[in-house]
Write a structure and sequence with these properties.
Length: about 210
């Protein structure tokens, strides 16, 4: 570990890769947590589904890029791998850290974080989609000339129970020109965001790509 704080003058050190941080921020908001250990040392954990081995590799790469002097470990459990890194400075990098689930507390970006998201919106969206999103193929049938035809069309989905995280996701979609629709909140509070327009799906496919 290093005692060097990654923040300089209230913002992320310019020597750290800001695009990788934006991606890691998206992963953290979706499937990450920070826990306090002994001697004011904290563990960042990003839970990754084993269905997507490429996502695990990307997560390890991003953590290593943002905190290059800290070890990154993969802790395996049935169907899941947690990417774990220890540092005194994870709360500096993610001031959204706090007690309890994220949907039960305010999630607001610090000005320096918002500036990074504004500069690297697609990296941020990619992290959110890789954590709590997916790309699926919907289908429908239509009768044309007496024959039933099947039509398929892709969609991107993002789901979260935090209204603040949903707001960050949709505001960033707006910033890059992606049109979206929100579902009625479920009894659990979960909201699904759907991207279905052909041109918006194409943008998402170009800049985010598939989970793998």
């Amino acid at each position: 570990m290093t005692a060097e704080c990654p923040l300089r003058d209230g913002r992320l050190d310019p020597s750290r890769p800001h695009a990788d941080y934006a991606y890691l921020l998206g992963l953290y908001l979706g499937d990450g947590c920070i826990s306090k250990g002994r001697r004011e040392v904290y563990a960042l954990r990003i839970a990754c589904c084993d269905t997507w081995p490429g996502l695990i590799e990307e997560c390890v790469r991003a953590v290593s890029a943002v905190m290059p002097h800290n070890k990154v470990n993969c802790v395996h459990a049935p169907g899941c791998t947690s990417v774990v890194s220890i540092s005194k400075h994870w709360p500096c990098l993610f001031p959204q850290h706090g007690p309890g689930p994220k949907h039960l507390r305010p999630i607001v970006l610090a000005p320096w974080q918002q500036a990074i998201v504004d500069a690297h919106p697609w990296a941020f969206l990619r992290g959110l989609i890789h954590s709590d999103g997916c790309r699926i193929t919907n289908w429908a049938t239509r009768t044309v000339g007496g024959a039933t035809k099947r039509y398929e069309y892709p969609r991107h989905f993002f789901a979260n129970t935090s209204t603040d995280i949903i707001g960050l996701f949709t505001a960033t979609l707006d910033a890059v020109g992606v049109q979206w629709k929100a579902s009625i909140p479920r009894p659990t509070g979960q909201v699904n965001i759907s991207v279905a327009r052909k041109d918006s799906v194409a943008l998402m496919d170009t800049h985010i790509g598939p989970k793998y």
